[in-house]
Amino acid sequence: MGQVQMRNLGEREFHQAVREVFANVLPLVEANPVYRQMKILERLVEPERVIMFRVPWIDDQGNVQINRGFRVEMNSAIGPFQGGIRFHPSVSLSIMKFLAFEQVFQNSLTGLPLGGAKGGADFDPKGKSEFEIMRFCQSFMNELYRYIGTDMDIIISGVGVRAREIGFLFGAYKKLSGMYAGGAVAGKGEQWGGSQLRAEAGGFGAIFFLENMLATIERQLEGLKMCISGAGNVALYAAQKAVEQGAKVLTVSDTGGLLYASEGFSLEQIEAVKRTKKRYRGNLKDICGEYADLQYFAGRTPWHIPCDVALPAATQNELYAEDAENLIKNGVKVVAEAADMPCTPSALSAFQENGVLIAPAKAVNAGGVILAGLETAQNASHQLWTRAEVESRLRRAVADIHASCVRYGSDGSGPVNYIKGANVAGFVRVAEAMVDQGVI
Hints:
By secondary structure, the protein is α/β, with parallel strands linked by helices. Helix content is 46%, strand content 16%. The chain is built from 16 helices and twelve strands. It has helices spanning 2-7, 12-30, 33-37, 40-44, 93-110, 130-144, 163-177, 201-216, 233-244, 267-279, 321-329, 345-353, 361-364, 367-381, 387-409, 418-437; strands spanning 49-58, 64-75, 81-87, 115-121, 153-156, 225-228, 248-254, 257-261, 294-298, 309-311, 334-336, 357-359. A hairpin with a 2-residue loop joins strand 7 and strand 8. It is globular.
């Protein structure tokens, strides 16, 4: 870790992600002389390639704007790179490296032949016109297209990058490359190579994983109170599936504050939130006027609300030690990370020390990666599977990930250590591939 910190100065998010994984896999490395000889840990923290570039574009007033673009191609030992694109003002090299590092192990957990990468830009789509977003995406792809392709690096949607942005990015890629290489981009529209459940996969997958977790303690989702943070695709579709399965979803949130339903959201209310956030690009506070039983609290997060299950699905490091203490005091039983690294290290420690069952994002939030793999398979075979078939495949793939976490995270004497199980299961597959392929 000293070496990682010295070689990656100031990259706190990257340090945090590396420390969490290495804490679990170090005993495995110490017991395996081949891993030490081949410098597996040292090689894992060094990206195979880091691409940084400027993204100039012209706004609607004719002014030139400049953003910074990234693509961190972390590890391709088990397949071509694959990972999301994030457009958000907070994007930095540290965040891109932490996300790419996590993506390596998440992709490994799925069992798919995919390496890990992540990319994005410090561009905020909020408040931008359709034409501004289109011009930005075209400028961004003008540089990135050189490095992506079905057998090179596959980009998928992420924070700030949904169907609209994916469409603009793919249109630019098709024009620049001169090919209709649909496998280079996942998350496409159904009319042009996309898959059913494209938007739903991350949220549905999180609930499927949560159901598997609950089964290990002989519980089920029906009747449980759940707090969810965030109001993106993962949060809202997780809320939808949870309500369909009989849970009482009490909260969703955005950067402005918390929307609270004391009796639980109805499916109608969740659909209203989707319309507000996705179609009208509005804020959660705009919903309150429509429903008398909903309350909005500006500047608040969900973690003071008593619940059985917490699903942080907003962003990294959103749940702090004091939030964990509030949840524990109020009786939380299960925490499933649906965003990338949403719990701070001190919050994770608090949950583990107090016997709360907690699973990391690389296992819980693999639905989007699984769906991208299913989309690529459909593109390659020139098929479009039904919604029921895609959901069935997604559910089976999530169950397989859960089984891997249990295999490596259970000693038979207590609850499953999902953090250890996910990290070790993801690491072993990548490490063995790196050993087989030599020092490259």
